[in-house]
Amino acid sequence: MVLSGLFRGLVGFGLVRIVSRNQSSSAMERPYQLLPIKLGCEVRGIKLSADISDDVIALIKEDVTKHRLLVFKNQENLTPEEHLTVGRWFGEIESTFYNHPKSPHRDIFRVSNDRSEGCTNVGRTGWHIDGSFQEAPFSHSIYHIISVPNVSATVFAPLTEIVENLSSEKRALWDRLWMASDRRSGPKHPMIYKHPESGKPVMCFHLGMTEGFVKDLGKKEQKYLSQEETEEVLNGIHHEFVKNDGAVQYRHKYEPGDLIVSDNLSVGHEASPDTQLPREKIGLRVMHRVTIAGKTSPKK
After folding, report:
1. What is the pTM of this model?
2. Are the C-beta atoms of residues 65 and 263 closer than 8 Å to each other?
């Protein structure tokens, strides 16, 4: 065929490049901009409400794994159903047990500083990852700000850096601990384990939902920590997040349209105290959160 011969000639002269179907999506030219921030990246130049190709979705997922936190700017027009569509890129959506009457969908967790508008005091029980009480904690959390108050933030911190900068004594102890959720039916998870995708050390923890810790689970010397020892460990975890004036923290103050995708297993977080200040003082705060079912249990 004349055309096929011409095509081979163009390839031979380097004027046409063949891209393998198996080539990593990271080799694509990004149709959006990544701007580094203290933790993760800000993303500009893409509307998640548009028809996003499979290749671009794969690229976004790779960027989330690599950077752990992506803040998509200017997503004001994203509908609740489109929010759920973005969530499904990362896996099966798993609803929390909260269901506020004003939530637009059962799979969207609606939070607010006004109990008539959403669930209140969410994220205010201490540093944590989402779903630590489940056999497989949530893999990702996706936050879309709906109404932005004058102040308030979600504060994030990178778990790998926290683990890798522990004192040798504290690391040795934490490596031997399993957390037990405050839900009696909840499983016991290793406090430090390898992230299922990156292989880097991360933590399974929740400062406000921990019944206790087991040392050397499954071994002859297995021991349940006393209440005093448990409090000492919890205080030690808190210290690692707040020491040096919270130098490890990234405090995200929302702007209209912000949508955050976080690798829940790589990043600890909590809501700042001012998220619950009265509506009359800071304005109405409403955020929608979608969580993605975990695929694996934390394992040593």
Report:
1. 0.89
2. yes
